[in-house]
Amino acid sequence: MDKTILDLWIGIFVTLGIAALFVLALKVGNASTTFNTGATYRIIADFDNIGGLKVRAPVKSAGVVVGRVDDIQFDNRKFVARVTMNVDRRYEFPKDTSVSILTSGLLGEQYIGLEAGGDSAMLKDGDALKLTQSAVVLEKLIGQFLYNKAAEGGAK
Amino acid sequence: MPRTSSWGPPVLERGANAFRIVGRRVTNGVWRLGYASRFFLLTLTRSALSFRRFRGLTFREIYFAGVLSLIIIIVSGLFVGMVLGLQGYETLQKYGSSEAVGTLVALSLVRELGPVVSALLFASRAGSAMTAEIGLMKATEQISAMEMMAVDPIARVIGPRFWGGVLSMPLLAAIFSAMGVFGGYLITVVVIGVDEGAFWSQMQNAVDFRQDIVNGVIKSVVFGVAVTAIALFEGYDAPPTAEGVSGATTRTVVTSSLAILGLDFVLTAFMFKGI
Question: Which of B264, B87, B101, B99 is nearest to B173 (CA)?
């Protein structure tokens, strides 16, 4: 086989392969958001119950993804879940920001929602959030509903 | 068997023979495995020589193993993606989440189907050709002739084919996955009419670069090594007859398909536990 034709085809093949990898990384995957992890700061929050929250779940404020969950640990002294989040440096939040675990859709995955407070001081790297709201556990919710119904029935 | 006739009654003799058959099978298996491992190690250690002296040959093998497999990989990737799109849509729209079809197509392709199916196609398309070629080279005594001329057949014949296959496999798997996602896009967005923005954004939310794409590439590299090593060993080990070469070609396809599926289970168990 002619050397130049061989080179041409191998060039086309390798370029196609690398282009496919780039398409997978940038268009299909989230590499475009993975690679700028340098510009983040960490905030910590304690929850009584994190439900089905997982590492790498999104952290959203007003529905916009501002960061990701970095680490979930169990604090064996206070018996709570300690969640560490990486938040993009471009976004700053007041110190009294409240944080809750929410669910996207009825059966969707769980994410963390940040709601900005009114404090003039801003959160810094490693700060802990005080106002936390745990995940909604369906069994507890149903239990509460039944209890309220029973209480209503008794009052009538 | 006069040698073992001192064993006593013929019933005992027959029982001992049954054990002998099992024993011979095991010994043969272990012997072949050891031979294959030494062959693989030899291929690796002679690779430096084959890169220095026969670099052009490695490119030639990338052409035969990679470029000539492009058509089958592109076409089957497209069809696998289109089928996934159709089937996924059928099921997901029952739960009112037909936008998640992008996630389904991309995750199944990038994690499993891309590396596995392209490795299976590669084994039957390029692996069998390698075995037949080397088996025939051996049958026509070209390998012995090389040794006579003080050309190392491992560095000259095996090394370039091994690296050609190992370098081609991840690229083929990536092309397969990309074509599959494109096929899924064609069917679900263009034909059925799923919302395009939701299709891509849900996919990008779910597919992680490190967890999914890099793991898929690692899988395809492992499969590339396994398929090429099996194909080359079977060819080199083939009895130098017509039946020997045909049997070796069949064994290449069967063994490497089983190896791909087995390795895939092991790799998946290590990569995706508890995520």
Answer: B264
* pTM higher than 0.90: no
Q: Cβ distance B98 to B194 under 8 Å?
A: yes
Confidence check on the interface: ipTM exceeds 0.85, yes or no: no
Residue ranges of domains in chain A: 1-32, 40-143
**Residue B212 DSSP code:** I
Q: Does A150 touch chain B (CB under 8 A)?
A: no
Q: Report the distance separating Cα B128 and Cα B126, nearest Å.
A: 6
- The Cα–Cα gap between B50 and A146 comes to 76
B208 and A12 in contact by Cβ < 8 A? Answer: no
The nearest CA of chain A is from the CA of B112 a distance in Å of 14
> Which of these ranges, A36-45, B110-119, B193-202, has the smallest mean pLDDT?
A36-45
How many angstroms separate the Cα of A25 from the Cα of each of B48, B125, B178? 32, 27, 10
> Which pair of structure tokens corresponds to residue A99?
């944080």
Does pLDDT of B238 surpass 70?
Answer: yes
Closest chain B C-alpha to A13 CA, distance in angstroms: 6
Contact list in B for residue A26 (CB cut-off 8 A) is none
Instruction: Give the one of A21, A34, A58 whose C-beta lies nearest to B174's C-beta.
Output: A21
Handedness of CA B225, B226, B230, B231 (dihedral sign): negative
